Amino acid sequence: MLDIKFIRNNIELVEEALKKRNAKGNLDEFLKLDKSRRELIAKSEQLKQTRNEVSQEIGRLKRDKKDITHLTKEMKELGQEIKRYDRELKEVEEKLNDILLSIPNIPNEDVPVGQSDEDNKEIRRWGEVKEFDFEAKAHWDLGEELGILDPKTAAKVTGARFTFLKGLGARLERALVNFMLDLHTTEHGYTEVFPPYMVHRRSMVGTGQLPKFEEDAFKIEGTDYYMIPTAEVPVTNMYREEIIDGDILPIKHVAYSACFRAEAGSAGRDTRGLIRQHQFNKVELVKFTRPEESYEELEKLTNNAEEVLKRLGLPYRVVVLCTGDLGFSSAKTYDIEVWMPSYNRYVEISSCSNFEDFQARRADIKYRPKKGEKAVYVHTLNGSGVAVGRTVAAIMENYQMADGSIEIPKALIPYMGGVERITK
RNA sequence: GGAGAGAUGUCCGAGCUGGUUGAAGGAGCUGGUCUUGAAAACCAGUGAUACCGCAAGGUACCGAGGGUUCGAAUCCCUCUCUCUCCGCCA
After folding, report:
1. Which of A1, A4, A63, A66 counts the highest number of beta carbons within 10 A?
2. Which nucleotide lies closest to A42 by the C1' atom and the CA atom?
3. Closest CA to A121 of A111, A131, A130
4. What is the per-residue pLDDT for A413?
5. pTM value?
6. DSSP secondary-structure letter at A183?
């Protein structure tokens, strides 16, 4: 959410930002409602002042046993009038809030302007893309042959876009979760949290998933609960409506969680394999920082996520998303893309974003720069560190051997109980 | 699931027979006196909130949302959360 005063005073700038994002915002309506809101507040508060004064006067008169009936009658009418203004105000504020919640964040100035993911800019590459001297297979074929991926049974039990991991496949998934958590907690200084997998609506609004992207979320029928699409939601909302002690910033959390996404609008895309599932595991990095430190922290966070792929020996590149591809809440995002032989291209495995104060304002998360000073919004950041299912796919494909077996990356062997290779 | 108790400012904690209560008292914090320094003691200050307004100032806020009333932290209704006991359960 943007600051209402900021929009009012920088309407051209906001318009420009929306245009760069290919987004539309009802700014004319915003200005109208904003004006009407302030007028109604002035009116209502003026009447309330009168009411407060007269009510005190009535108290005094009553104590002196004087007649007050003419005043109470008058005040009763005044009360009705106030009620009318307040009702109207509430309506206007609701409409205004709807608009406010639907305006995306303003891209940082160094974000490249562009229409789509084709305009994203590559920042750097790491690792060598392996040339296979045999016909490389996709991970879904390898997985079925090795008996470690079983989407068919999952389809029987649940439906499309779910998978049973079996044997060393399940072990690999678990090994990766532990490997990533250990790396980020012991070497990168993140504090581990294990969050609830369901959150209420207010939390989803706090991080920006709602109200705009209702169709992407799984909602639990008959409740106010949503399955989390990422640990970002519960972990960021841990500090909702709080004023954080400035001494403990930056706060760095790492959280493993399953993630649930409806994937509306991607029917027919990535239907095979682990790339696009309704449920997947992710290790998420979340930071709360002082505003002046957030971009430095974004670089560090991205590096922390990259380290996972380096240790696993998976070739990747980092791209900065252009304005047209940027997520709703983000001011700047780096995607880390891992080399996926079956796609013959790099595929997103992590998305690291600085939301600046956009989420903090929605979720009301502040800190106090100095004792006695006014509290200000923190900056929030997060990024996958990294998506586990896609890492499994990447390992299977990049580490496959001519005989259809899969080598385990060195760093992972201790987590695999010494297993060095997955064979038939 | 059943029966109770509760939610007040940075914190603890009064008020809850409706009217100088934005809210006693204490702690904390800030400044001062005293002291070689510190502690203690004492004195003074202290909404670490949001909104409207150029300002003066005003309005709101005692878990949340409604209602009664000229006037609600105080009365009524609904909801949420916390705690205790019983039952059930991983």
Report:
1. A1
2. B52
3. A111
4. 98
5. 0.93
6. I
